[in-house]
Amino acid sequence: MISLNNLTVEFGGFTLFKQVSFIVNTRDRIGLVGKNGAGKSTLLKIFAGKQEATKGTVSIPNEIKIGYLPQQMKHEDGRTVIEEALTAFEEVIQLEKEIAQINNEIAERTDYESEEYMKLINRLTEKNDRFHMMGGENIQAEAERTLLGLGFLRSDFNRQTDEFSGGWRMRIELVKILLRRPNVFLLDEPTNHLDIESIQWLEDFLKTYPGAVVLVSHDRAFLDNITNRTVEISVGKIYDYKVSYTEYVQLHAERREQQMKAYVNQQKMIKDTEDFIERFRYKATKSVQVQSRVKQLEKLDRIEVDEVDNSKLNLKFPPAPRSGDLVCQVKDLSKSYGDNLVLKDLEFVIERGEKLAFVGKNGEGKSTLVKVLMGELDHTGICKIGHNVKIGYFAQNQAMLLDENKTVFDTIDDVAVGDVRTKIRDILGAFMFGGEDIDKKVKVLSGGERSRLAMIRLLLEPVNLLVLDEPTNHLDMKSKDVLKEALLKFEGTVIVVSHDREFLDGLSSKVYEFTNKKIKEHLGGIYSFLQNKKMDSLKELEVKKNIVQTQVEIAPSDNKMNYLERKEMSKKISKMERAVSTAEDNIARFEEQIVEMEDMLANPEKMQDQSLFSKYEQAKKDLENEMTAWENYNEELENLIAEKGE
C-alpha cells in the first residue's frame, strides 16, 4: 500500500535515515519505536506528505487516503463540536449541495422530453447513488457515535470548539480522522490526552478497522493491544519485527547482543589492521600488504550501534519527615463552577503509605479534586490535611512555573542535596537530558522538555505526599521506568492522576473512579479495576454508561415498592437490558457489513453489481432501524429504572 525505497533524510549534515526501505501492507498494525530523536515523527510526516526525503522514493497510490494525527496541530475556531466533526464528510456535504441544486433546476424546467433534461436526471441519479453509497444519510449519527466514544457528552455537541482545552481539541481532530475512514492511520502519540475509557474505545476501533495503522506511542499497553508489527529505527536504519511490542523487546535484546558481538569483533579486527599498517608503513618489503590492508579498511562497512546506558540508576527520594497516619480526610465535600456541579458530597480517608490512582473520564473532576487537596480551590464540606504532611505537587502546567533564565543543570542543582548532587548528570540523562542539553536555558526548551525537568525537581524535594497530575504525558519508556521505580520505593503517600495503565500497574493498590460527580473506591490494581469495568460498561455508549451507574446507585434496601412489585420490575429491567444489548450487537454487525461492502463497492468492477448495491442499501436501512430501536429501548429502560427508584 505504501512503500519506501532507499529513503535518505539529512538535516544540516546529520543523516537521520540511510537508504531505508520497507512496505506498509493493508492490514498492518505497526508500532514505530526508537530512542528520542531517532526519526519516528519525521517518518510519519514523510508518509503524510508533510516533509520530503533528501533521496529515495515514497510510493503511495492515488486512491489511498491518509489520516494523520500529529502531536501538535493548529486549530480553527468558529464552529461547534458537531459542525467541526462533520467537516470530515466534505465530499458528502458537497454532494448534498449539488443534489439540492440539481433538484431546484429540475423543478424550474418544463422541457421534460429534451436531451438537457434527461442529462440532468442522469446527473441527479449518479449523485444520489454516490451519496447513498457513501452513507450520506448517516453522517450525523456516525459523527455523534464517534464523539461519544471519545468521551464527549451530547451537551458538548453544540459548544464552540474554542471553549475546549488543547487535549479535547486534539480529540476533535482524532474524531475527524476516524470519520474519514482513511486507508492508513498515522498516529503520533494519540493517547497523550485521552482518558482510560477513551483509550480502550480507540483500541477497540483500531483493532477491527479494515485499514492499516502506523503509530508512535510510549504507552506499552496500547502498543501491545494494537500492533502486530514493530519497526525499530536505530542509527539511521530500520529493523522490522513481525511481532507486537513486548515480543519485540525480547527479540531486540537478542539482536543487540549479536550486534554488539559483531561490533566488538569488527573493532578488534580494525585495531589489528591499523596496528599492522602503522608497524610496517615504512618497510618496503611490506608495502603491498600495507596497501592491501588500507584498501580493506576503506571498503569496510562499519557496524554502528545505538549508544545505550546500561547503568542502573537508583533514584531515591530524599528523606522527609514522617507524616501522621491520617494523611487526608474528606467529608461532605462538593465543588461547583458557577451552576456546574463537578463533585458532590465526597467522603473518603487517605492513610499514610497508600498509593492511589485517580481515574475516570476527562471532565469528571479528577484535577479539580487535586486542586482542592492543594488548597487552590474553594469548596463546601471538609478537606483536612493530616499532621506534618508535606505535599509535592506536579500539575499539568507545572512546566510553566520554572525559572526561564536558569540552565537545566542549575534548575536541578538548586534543589539537590547530599549525595544526589554527585548524580545530577546521571539523573538528567535518565530523563533524556544528555550532553550539551544540560547547559540549555529553560526558555529554549520545548513543552515536553520543561515537563520532564519539572518532574526531576519534584523527585528531589523532601516531601511525604506526592500528588502527580498526568505525570507521564511527555516521558519516554525509560524515563517512565525510572519514575515508577522511584515511586515504588517512596515511603510516603502517592496520588496519581493518570491514563497510563502500564505505569499504574503494580504501582497503585487502590483505584478511585470518578463518575457521576462521585468517587467509587476499588480495591486492587488497575488491571483488576479495568477487568471489572469492561464487564460493566467500558465498551458501551454514553447513555448505557449512565444507565448502569443509575442501577448501581439504587439501594438494594429500597422499600418504596413491595417485594413482588420490585421483583416484577427487576424482570422487566433485565428483559429491557437484554434488548439493549442485542440491539448493540446488531448495530456492530450491520456496521461491519457496511464497511465490508463499502470496500467491495470501491472496486469499479463491483460497482456494476446491482445485487451488492441492494444489499448495501438494505444494510444501511437495517442499521438505521436498529439505532432507532436501541434509542427506544434505552429510553424505556431509563423510565423503568426511574420508576423503580421512586
UniProtKB/TrEMBL annotation:
Keywords: ATP-binding, Coiled coil, Nucleotide-binding
Isomerase is among the record's keywords: no
Domain ABC transporter: 2-260, 328-541
InterPro entries the UniProt entry points to: AAA+_ATPase (IPR003593), ABC_tran_Xtn (IPR032781), ABC_transporter-like_ATP-bd (IPR003439), ABC_transporter-like_CS (IPR017871), ABCF_ATPase (IPR051309), P-loop_NTPase (IPR027417)
GO molecular function: ATP binding
Coiled coil: 85-115, 566-643
Pfam families linked to this entry: ABC_tran, ABC_tran_Xtn
Family annotation (PANTHER family): ABC TRANSPORTER ATP-BINDING SUBUNIT, DRUG RESISTANCE ABC TRANSPORTER,ATP-BINDING PROTEIN
Protein name, per record: ATP-binding cassette domain-containing protein
